Amino acid sequence: MKLQRQTLFGGKEGNCFAACVASLLGLDLSDVPNFCARQTWWVDLIDWVRPFGLRPLSFPTRGRTDEWATWFAPDQVVIASGPAVRGFDHSTLYLDGKLFWDPHPSGDGILLVNDVIFFMAVEPHRVVAR
Questions:
Q1: Which carries the bigger pLDDT value, residue 73 or residue 22?
Q2: In this structure, are residues 69 and 89 in contact, taking their beta carbons and an 8 Å threshold?
Q3: What is the Rg, in whole angstroms, of the alpha carbon atoms belonging to the chain?
Q4: For residue 65, how many other CB atoms are within 10 A of its CB?
Q5: Which residue, 9, 41, 21, is CA-closest to 93?
Q6: How does pLDDT run across 55-74, given as a tens digit for each residue?
Q7: Angle CA 77–34–43, to nearest 5
Q8: 26-40, 55-69, 83-97: lowest mean pLDDT where?
Q9: 3-class secondary structure, 27
Q10: Which ranges of 6-113 would DSSP assign to H, the alpha helix?
Q11: For residue 69, what pLDDT is reported?
Q12: Phi, psi at residue 72, to the nearest 5°?
Protein backbone atom coordinates (compact mmCIF):
# COMPACT_ATOMS: atom_id res chain seq x y z
CA MET A 1 0.00 0.00 0.00
CA LYS A 2 1.23 3.44 -0.94
CA LEU A 3 -0.74 6.02 1.07
CA GLN A 4 -1.65 9.09 -0.96
CA ARG A 5 -2.86 12.55 0.11
CA GLN A 6 -5.59 14.33 -1.78
CA THR A 7 -4.56 17.42 -3.75
CA LEU A 8 -7.99 18.85 -4.63
CA PHE A 9 -10.51 19.90 -2.00
CA GLY A 10 -14.23 20.57 -1.61
CA GLY A 11 -17.38 18.79 -2.69
CA LYS A 12 -17.37 17.00 -6.03
CA GLU A 13 -14.12 18.66 -7.09
CA GLY A 14 -12.13 17.06 -4.27
CA ASN A 15 -10.08 13.96 -5.02
CA CYS A 16 -10.17 12.20 -1.65
CA PHE A 17 -11.85 9.16 -3.23
CA ALA A 18 -9.20 8.96 -5.95
CA ALA A 19 -6.52 9.20 -3.26
CA CYS A 20 -8.13 6.25 -1.45
CA VAL A 21 -8.26 4.17 -4.66
CA ALA A 22 -4.64 5.04 -5.44
CA SER A 23 -3.58 4.11 -1.90
CA LEU A 24 -5.35 0.75 -2.03
CA LEU A 25 -3.87 -0.15 -5.41
CA GLY A 26 -0.38 1.12 -4.62
CA LEU A 27 -0.51 3.81 -7.31
CA ASP A 28 0.38 7.47 -7.48
CA LEU A 29 -2.60 9.80 -7.22
CA SER A 30 -1.78 11.19 -10.67
CA ASP A 31 -2.47 7.72 -12.14
CA VAL A 32 -6.07 7.60 -10.88
CA PRO A 33 -8.96 9.59 -12.37
CA ASN A 34 -10.95 11.92 -10.14
CA PHE A 35 -14.02 9.69 -10.34
CA CYS A 36 -16.27 11.77 -8.10
CA ALA A 37 -16.01 14.77 -10.41
CA ARG A 38 -17.78 12.67 -13.05
CA GLN A 39 -21.52 12.17 -13.45
CA THR A 40 -20.99 8.46 -14.20
CA TRP A 41 -18.35 7.91 -11.52
CA TRP A 42 -19.52 4.44 -10.44
CA VAL A 43 -19.60 2.99 -13.96
CA ASP A 44 -16.27 4.68 -14.70
CA LEU A 45 -14.76 3.14 -11.57
CA ILE A 46 -16.00 -0.33 -12.53
CA ASP A 47 -14.50 0.01 -16.00
CA TRP A 48 -11.24 1.48 -14.71
CA VAL A 49 -10.48 -1.30 -12.16
CA ARG A 50 -11.49 -4.13 -14.52
CA PRO A 51 -7.95 -4.49 -15.97
CA PHE A 52 -6.71 -4.99 -12.39
CA GLY A 53 -9.00 -8.03 -12.11
CA LEU A 54 -11.14 -6.22 -9.54
CA ARG A 55 -14.77 -5.27 -9.06
CA PRO A 56 -15.87 -2.58 -6.57
CA LEU A 57 -18.70 -3.48 -4.23
CA SER A 58 -20.59 -0.84 -2.27
CA PHE A 59 -22.62 -1.31 0.89
CA PRO A 60 -24.68 1.29 2.76
CA THR A 61 -23.87 1.20 6.47
CA ARG A 62 -26.19 3.93 7.71
CA GLY A 63 -23.66 5.02 10.31
CA ARG A 64 -23.45 1.67 12.13
CA THR A 65 -19.66 1.39 12.26
CA ASP A 66 -19.68 -1.26 14.96
CA GLU A 67 -21.80 -3.67 12.88
CA TRP A 68 -20.56 -3.46 9.29
CA ALA A 69 -16.90 -4.11 10.15
CA THR A 70 -17.70 -7.72 11.03
CA TRP A 71 -20.16 -8.33 8.18
CA PHE A 72 -17.70 -8.44 5.31
CA ALA A 73 -14.09 -7.87 4.36
CA PRO A 74 -12.56 -8.61 7.77
CA ASP A 75 -8.89 -7.61 7.93
CA GLN A 76 -9.28 -5.75 4.64
CA VAL A 77 -8.79 -2.03 4.15
CA VAL A 78 -11.96 -0.51 2.67
CA ILE A 79 -13.03 2.92 1.45
CA ALA A 80 -15.42 4.41 4.00
CA SER A 81 -17.33 7.57 3.13
CA GLY A 82 -19.51 9.94 5.07
CA PRO A 83 -19.79 13.53 6.27
CA ALA A 84 -16.64 15.33 7.41
CA VAL A 85 -16.44 18.22 9.85
CA ARG A 86 -15.72 20.49 6.87
CA GLY A 87 -19.31 20.06 5.62
CA PHE A 88 -18.56 17.82 2.63
CA ASP A 89 -18.89 14.10 2.10
CA HIS A 90 -15.42 12.62 2.38
CA SER A 91 -13.69 9.31 1.64
CA THR A 92 -11.21 7.65 3.98
CA LEU A 93 -9.70 4.21 4.48
CA TYR A 94 -10.94 2.03 7.34
CA LEU A 95 -9.67 -1.26 8.74
CA ASP A 96 -11.81 -3.35 11.08
CA GLY A 97 -14.26 -0.50 11.64
CA LYS A 98 -11.63 2.09 12.54
CA LEU A 99 -9.97 4.92 10.66
CA PHE A 100 -6.81 3.65 8.98
CA TRP A 101 -5.95 6.60 6.67
CA ASP A 102 -7.45 9.98 5.93
CA PRO A 103 -6.15 11.46 2.67
CA HIS A 104 -7.05 14.98 3.86
CA PRO A 105 -4.12 16.85 5.45
CA SER A 106 -6.14 17.45 8.64
CA GLY A 107 -6.48 13.73 9.33
CA ASP A 108 -9.85 14.44 10.96
CA GLY A 109 -11.59 11.48 9.32
CA ILE A 110 -15.36 11.37 8.99
CA LEU A 111 -18.14 11.85 11.50
CA LEU A 112 -19.87 8.58 10.60
CA VAL A 113 -19.64 5.94 7.92
CA ASN A 114 -22.53 6.09 5.45
CA ASP A 115 -21.17 3.60 2.93
CA VAL A 116 -18.26 1.28 2.39
CA ILE A 117 -16.60 0.22 -0.86
CA PHE A 118 -14.21 -2.67 -1.16
CA PHE A 119 -12.65 -4.38 -4.13
CA MET A 120 -13.33 -8.02 -4.86
CA ALA A 121 -10.98 -10.05 -7.05
CA VAL A 122 -13.02 -11.31 -10.00
CA GLU A 123 -10.02 -12.35 -12.04
CA PRO A 124 -7.45 -13.43 -9.42
CA HIS A 125 -4.79 -14.19 -12.04
CA ARG A 126 -4.75 -10.49 -12.99
CA VAL A 127 -4.45 -9.37 -9.39
CA VAL A 128 -1.58 -11.76 -8.69
CA ALA A 129 0.17 -10.92 -11.97
CA ARG A 130 0.16 -7.24 -11.06
A1: 22
A2: no
A3: 14
A4: 17
A5: 21
A6: 999 988 876 666 666 666 67
A7: 80
A8: 55-69
A9: coil
A10: 16-25, 41-49, 65-71
A11: 67
A12: -155, 160
How is residue 123 annotated by DSSP?
S
The DSSP bridge partners found for residue 54 are 121
Query: For residues 3 and 9, is the Cβ–Cβ distance under 8 A?
Result: no
* Angle, vertex CA 43, rays to CA 14 and CA 61, nearest 5: 70
The CATH architecture that domain 11-129 belongs to is Alpha-Beta Complex (3.90)
Q: Where are the domains of the chain?
A: 11-129
Helix axes 41-49, 16-25, angle to 10 degrees: 10
Residues 28 and 10: their CA atoms lie apart, in Å, by: 20
Identify residue 62 by its one-letter amino acid code: R
Beta bridge partners of 33: none
